[in-house]
Amino acid sequence: MIPTHRISSVLFLICCIxxxxxxxxxxxxxxxxLRKPTTKPTADLIVRKEVRTVxxxxxxxxxxxxxxxxxxxxxxxxxxxxxxxxxxxxxEDISTLEDQYETLGQNPHFQRLDSATRLLATWDxxxxxxxxxxxxxxxxxxSKDVFLxxxxxxxxxxxxxxxxxxxxxxxxxxxxxxxxxxxxxxTFRDDLVRSQSIILKGSNGFSYMADYxxxxxxxxxxxxxxxxxxxxxxxxxxxxxxxxxxSTQFGAEWNGYESWANFPNExxxxxxxxxxxxxxxxxxxxxxxxxxxxxxxxxxKIKSRxxxxxNAVVDVTASGITSTWDFATNNANRVAxxxxxxxxxxxxxxxxxxxxxxxxxxxxxxQLRVEHSVLP
Length: 376
Ligand SMILES: [Fe+2]
Fold this sequence. Notes:
Blueprint: H1 4-19, E1 45-47, E2 53-57, H2 67-74, E3 79-82, H3 94-106, H4 108-116, E4 118-121, H5 125-128, H6 140-151, E5 167-171, E6 178-182, E7 193-194, E8 199-201, E9 207-209, E10 212-213, H7 225-234, E11 241-246, H8 264-280, E12 287-291, E13 297-302, E14 313-317, E15 334-339, E16 343-349, E17 357-363, E18 368-375
Parallel strand pairs: 1-5, 2-3, 3-4, 6-11, 11-12, 12-14
Antiparallel strand pairs: 2-16, 5-6, 7-10, 8-9, 13-14, 13-15, 16-17, 17-18
The structure holds fe (ii) ion.
The site of fe (ii) ion has 5 residues, from helix 5.
């Protein structure tokens, strides 16, 4: 049996054929709108979540208590960014790294944080696999697998299908869009230049030997070609706020240890790209760096290429969750800190009655140690 709607379709067709010479019963042709393929850059992942409070920290020994994470939880962060040295693997046996992550997963402080907020992560040398390691670390592929397993990226996370672990998120679930860029400072980084007996003084007068000197060649790279290409596009993603997470310090003055200051060309390139991107925006996107690695907290302000204060870039360093260090290095770019006790950082974004971007450093006893207006 032919269904009723089929019969009416057949009658309609007969009508069309028989009357087509006199009348056209074709529907009015609709205007075809050719859409230009969108060329707007987008973040790797769009997350429908409101973000106003961003917490971050680094340098955690998995087997140790992490009470400073409870301090972070009390600030009700919308996300917590793990900035690297999230475990200490320091191994050429991948099972050691796996064990360290397993221990972190069982740490009750970590578990409480995990159930309280969304975790994002990049890595630094010790959880990549080896102290100060770069692109020559032999287990980098295996280490990446362990990293991605532990941090449970969504199935469609692009970093699963490309080299390295750099990644970006656009949190657009509220009144303000927050773009978080996680850099990978390990997978592509060239070897560092060993220092030849340079003695430096720390901020408390402590003398130490510099490990590294700045690269002088033009072909030295920290991020590598593919990551730079990706980053250039990311800096054109529309947002109300942009946070760039780098495991090593971006804004601190050169101090003989690992930092962006060992790659002055790349540091300048970053500043240039941010300035160029901002010039193309109707309203420049407020951009702030967050970093870890050094076992104390501080805030650094690095001048732009033209030396203007307006284009200066702020880097908020929070380190460590369990680690501490005996001294802070001298840092002419420091505008707050150093805080030598265990700490976490907080960025408050667009809070009514506060600065547009407020940076805070909290210690493990729950004291607010630094409150710094990054953008009034
Ligand atoms: Fe580190």
